[in-house]
Amino acid sequence: MGSLNNNYALDFKLYYNTIDNALSSTNITRRGVNPATEEVLPLVPVSTREDVDDAVRAGQDAFPSWRELSWDKRAEYLVRFADAIEANLGAIAELLGRETGKPVEAAARELEFALSHIRVTAKLRIPEQVLQDNEECSATLRYTPLGVGVGIIPWNFPVLLGLGKLDAALLSGNTFIWKPSPFSPYTALKLGELAARIFPRGVVQVLSGDDDLGPRLTSHPGIAKVSFTGSTATGKKVMQSCAATLKRFTLELGGNDAAIVCDDADLAKVVPKVGTFAFLNSGQVCMDIKRLYVHAAIYDDFMQQLVTFAKGLRTGGGGDSEAFSGPIQNAAQFARVQDLYGEVSRQSLKTAMGGSLRDLDKSLGYFMPLTIIDNPPEDSRVVVEEAFGPILPVLKWTDEKDVIARANNTKMGLGASVWSGDVERAQRIANRLEAGNVWVNNHFHLAPHVPFGGHKWSGIGMDWGVEGLKGWCNPQVMWVTKNSGGRSLL
Ligand code: NAD
C-alpha cells in the first residue's frame, strides 16, 4: 500500500452515497439543519430501494475476496483508513460540529476517540479455542464472518458509533453498509468517500436516507447482520424485522443510568465528575448519569457544590471554543425535551437550577438550560424516562438495600455507578446493580478493547473489544479426525 498523499483531500460542498466505490446521487434529496444556528445544511441523498439492492449486491460480490484476506491485511487497510481520516481531522471535526451542533472541541474529541478505536481494534484478534485434542480427534471453536453487515447509527455520536461498528465488521471479514441517522448524515457520507479510495470495491458503503431506509435494510434478505444503536422502541422494530430472515443482530439501546453517591464520598473529587457525566453532550449520551441518588447525610452539601459546578459549564454552538456542551441535536428531540421540562411546572417540581422552558423568540438554536431537579418523586417522568436532554433528577437515600432496589427499578440496564471513599463498600453495592456496565468511582471508563452493551431493555449483545468482534461472526466448531489407524471412532 502506498503512502498517504493528497488523494485524501475532501470537498465539503457536495454529498453523495458511496455504492461499490462510486459516488452516487439520488433524484430525491433532503437537507439537515445545524441545531446550534438552525442554518440549513447542504443536500444529501435519499436512498431508494434500488440503491439498497445495488449496495447489498456490491457488498456480497466483495465478501468472498475480503474474507479471504488475512486479519493482518484487513487490519492494514483499517489503519490506512484511520490515517486518511486523520489527514482531514480539522475539516471533518468542523463538519461534525455543524451537523450535531457540538462545540468544535467536543467534535474533535469524538473524532480522536474514533481514530484510536480503529487503531486499537485493528490489533485485536479472536483467539481460537481448542476444546478437545486427543489422539483420535480435535475440536476447535473458531469464528467465521457473516457476509454483508449493516450499521444503523443514531445522531448523538455519529462518527464514533459508526466507525466503532465499521472497524469490527471489516476486521472480522465482513463487508459493511453504514446507515447514518437522517439527522446527522454528513460526516458519514464524507468518510464513505474516503473509504472508497482505500478499501476494495464494495467493502465499505454509505447510504443516507429518510425513515424508510432503516426498515429496507433490516428486511433485506441479502444482509446477514444488523448492528443497531438507537432507542429501545426502534430496537424492538429492528429485532422483529431481522426475525423474518433470521439475521444476526446486536442492539445497543437507551439507558436511564443511576449513580449512587455514598455518605463517605469525597465531594471535591466526586461532584465535578458526576456533574460532567450528567451533562456531557447536553445529556444526550446513552450512558450519561440520568438519575443521581445522593446519601441524605451529604445531600445538601452535595447539591450546593453540584449547582456551583454546573453553573460553570458553558453551553454554546460549534464556533464557541470555550463551550462544554451544545444544543439538543434536532427539532423532534427538542420538542420531546421541552415537553419533559413542562413537568417542572405541571408537577410543581423543585429546581436547584434551571428548569424553565426555552423562549423560542429570543434566540436561534435548540438550546435548553442545564437543569437540576431537587428530590422529585421517584415515579415522576423526569426520573422514570430517559430524558436525553440536560435535566438531572437528584434523589435522597439512606438505606443501602432500598437505594439498590430503586436504582434497579427500571426496564433499562445500560450503566450504573457507585461513588464512595470505601471501594469495598462501593463494590458490594455495584455487584448488585443490573446493568451492562458498572463503574466504581467513575461513570465513563470506556475503551475500544473493552466491550460495551446493555442489560434488560438497554440492549442485546455487545459492541467493541473481542466480544464485539464475535458479534460479527458465526461461531463454528471444526472437528478434525486424526489418522485413527483403522479403528472405528464410533
Ligand atoms: P432512533 O431509534 O430514533 O434512531 C436510530 C437509528 O435508527 C437512526 O439511524 C434511524 O434512522 C434508524 N431507524 C429509525 N426507525 C427505524 C426502523 N424502523 N428500522 C431500522 N432503523 C430505523 O434513535 P436516536 O433518536 O437516533 O438516538 C437516541 C437513542 O439512542 C437514545 O435512546 C440513546 O440512549 C440511544 N443510544 C444508545 C447507545 C448505546 O450504545 N446503547 C448509544 C447512543 C445512543
TrEMBL record:
Its EC number is 1.2.1.3. InterPro entries: Ald_DH/histidinol_DH, Ald_DH_C, Ald_DH_CS_GLU, Ald_DH_N, Aldehyde_DH_dom, LUC3-like. The keyword Oxidoreductase applies. Coiled coil: none annotated. It comes from the Eukaryota. Residues 31-476 form the Aldehyde dehydrogenase domain. Keywords: Oxidoreductase. The keyword Oxidoreductase applies. The active site is at 252. One of its GO terms (molecular function) is aldehyde dehydrogenase (NAD+) activity. It catalyses: an aldehyde + NAD(+) + H2O = a carboxylate + NADH + 2 H(+). Belongs to the aldehyde dehydrogenase family. PANTHER family: ALDEHYDE DEHYDROGENASE-RELATED. This is aldehyde dehydrogenase (NAD(+)). It comes from Schizothecium vesticola. The lineage of its organism: Eukaryota, Fungi, Dikarya, Ascomycota, Pezizomycotina.
